[in-house]
Amino acid sequence: MDGVNIAHGFTQLIVLVIWLGALGATIFALIHAVRQRADAFTAVDKLTKPIWSGILTAATLVLVAMLFLGFSLPFLGLFAIIATGIYLADVRPKVDEIQRGPRW
């Protein structure tokens, strides 16, 4: 096996690990969004629960489609990862805080 094939295999492994992490995070975010009360989203001045559920469902479908299409949707996959990141970093903490109360 020459160096090019080894590098290609290593690159494919890295892409697979990133994809698995992104898919896991997106599924986690989708489950979190579905389990929350709808009024919590509007109370923290974010998009509504159905909109976030739709965005995260679409992100999950894009990431699953990437597996079957040989990772040939790089920009859609990037948008899916960005949407998941926005939900997990911005929306989820505020929704959790409003439902549990502030931490101290």
Commentary on this structure:
By secondary structure, this protein is mostly helical. The protein has one domain (20-100). The protein is 83% helix and 0% strand. It is built from four helices and no strands. The mean pLDDT is 91.
Average pLDDT metric: 91
Total number of strands: 0
Q: What composes the largest sheet? A: none
Compute the separation of the termini in Å. 58 Å
How many separate structural domains? Answer: 1
Q: Report helical residue fraction.
A: over 70%
SS element count, helices: 4
Structural class assignment: mainly alpha
Question: Given the C-alpha coordinates, what overall shape results?
Answer: elongated
Radius of gyration: 17 Å
Provide the succession of SSEs.
HHHH
| Low-pLDDT segments | none
Percent of residues in beta strands: under 5%
